[in-house]
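Practice problem 4.
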């Protein structure tokens, strides 16, 4: 029997029972689409993985396509912002060789890759944001509020 997970991916399980961790589930228990697993098994060639545990595959062109197919199987919840820049370039065909064959250049000023943190407690909140205390610094003397009754002063140009 098939059931639906919260993400809508079809998984094999009995109704009312939680799926057991196995080869169809990723490390955190989220279900991978059966179709994606089957397609990867039939057509995919493993290329490499990144520091987050995402696995990257390539496959031959199918049908009228001229380019090879490239895809990722995420470690954990599928989130596109988890893909580092060097792998993103390879997935979208910007780079011909994957980062496993052509090592990316890392400069000292480069920060490590972070996924999108919007909607999480780690998201950036500027001073004055309601979730960051709601207080902002008072305006300094360089700001004057506009008033419709104030006379118009023009500066010569």
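Answer key:
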């Amino acid at each position: 029997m098939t059931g639906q997970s919260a993400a809508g991916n079809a998984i094999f399980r009995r109704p009312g029972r939680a799926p057991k961790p196995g080869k169809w589930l990723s490390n955190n228990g989220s279900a991978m689409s059966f179709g994606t697993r089957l397609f990867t098994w039939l057509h995919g060639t493993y290329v490499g993985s990144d520091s987050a545990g995402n696995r990257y595959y390539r496959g031959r062109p199918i049908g009228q396509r001229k380019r090879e197919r490239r895809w990722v199987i995420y470690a954990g919840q599928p989130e596109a912002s988890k893909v580092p820049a060097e792998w993103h370039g390879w997935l979208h065909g910007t780079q011909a060789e994957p980062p496993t064959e052509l090592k990316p250049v890392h400069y000292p000023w480069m920060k490590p890759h972070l996924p999108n943190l919007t909607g999480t407690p780690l998201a950036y909140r500027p001073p004055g944001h309601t979730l960051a205390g709601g207080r902002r610094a008072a305006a300094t003397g360089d700001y004057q509020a506009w008033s419709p009754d104030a006379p118009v002063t023009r500066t010569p140009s």
